[in-house]
């Protein structure tokens, strides 16, 4: 159920404080008894809206309440849009990952970035494989380079314990239009052209061999 924004703000006679701090445009700001603050709002044809009830004294704005609610809702939507949860996909490598496994994970990473997800790629060093940390760094840099068209590096490879990590964020790509080959399609009403005939060599009838009967 959507929350009614009107109940979040006390206005006019609904304000319980005895005195309030008044703010607003073309208003002499200061602390006033609530009755006087309401009278000031009425003189301007506006409302007294309590915007900070926990302040001492509470802060009230003299404003058009409907316009105030509209601006408030707009700000809430903008903040919600900015706070969209970012999906992070993890891709794990070993320090000696073969090409087949590498290409398989590279393909998945491209798909994740295209979907708007962030990539957290890391090389896990098990036991004595930590000796190959330079090899792991080279692998991650190669991975970032192969994804250059799809994402940008947020953090270069960093060794954290037994893992060397790199972060890659998606970036907008300019689509390359696909050029389809032209096909000869006859326009409506256009005379059809007959396909050229292919001449084939005439087959000659087999010559009958003369059979000579031998007289006995």
* Total number of strands: 8
Tally of individual domains: 2
Per DSSP, the total helix count is 4
For this structure, the CATH topology of the largest domain is Translation Initiation Factor IF3
- Within the largest sheet, what's the order of strands? 2-1-4-3
State the shape.
rod-shaped
What does this structure look like?
This protein has four helices and eight strands. By secondary structure, the chain is α/β, with parallel strands linked by helices. It has two domains: 7-79, Ubiquitin-like (UB roll); 88-170, Translation Initiation Factor IF3. A four-stranded mixed sheet has the order 2-1-4-3.
Record keyword descriptors for this entry.
216 residues; Ubiquitin-like (UB roll); disordered C terminus; Translation Initiation Factor IF3; alpha/beta; disordered N terminus; 4-stranded mixed β-sheet
């Amino acid at each position: 159920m959507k929350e009614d924004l009107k109940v979040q703000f006390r206005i006019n006679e609904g304000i319980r404080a005895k005195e309030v701090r008044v703010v607003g445009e073309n208003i002499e700001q200061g602390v006033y008894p609530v009755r006087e603050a309401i009278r000031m709002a009425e003189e301007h044809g506006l409302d007294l809206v309590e915007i900070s009830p926990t302040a001492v004294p509470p802060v009230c704005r003299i404003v058009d309440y409907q316009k105030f609610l509209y601006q408030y809702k707009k700000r809430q939507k903008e903040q919600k849009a900015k706070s969209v949860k970012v999906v992070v996909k993890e891709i794990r490598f070993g320090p000696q990952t073969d090409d087949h496994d590498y290409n398989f994970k590279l393909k998945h990473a491209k798909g994740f970035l295209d979907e708007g997800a962030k990539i957290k790629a890391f090389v896990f060093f098990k036991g004595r494989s930590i000796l190959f940390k330079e090899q792991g760094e080279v692998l991650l840099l190669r991975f970032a380079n192969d994804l250059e068209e799809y994402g940008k590096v947020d953090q270069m490879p960093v060794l954290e314990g037994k893992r060397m990590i790199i972060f890659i964020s998606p970036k907008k790509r300019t689509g390359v239009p696909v050029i389809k080959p032209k096909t000869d399609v006859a326009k409506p009403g256009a005379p059809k052209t007959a396909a050229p005939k292919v001449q084939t060599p005439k087959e000659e009838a087999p010559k009958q061999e003369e059979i000579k009967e031998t007289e006995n």
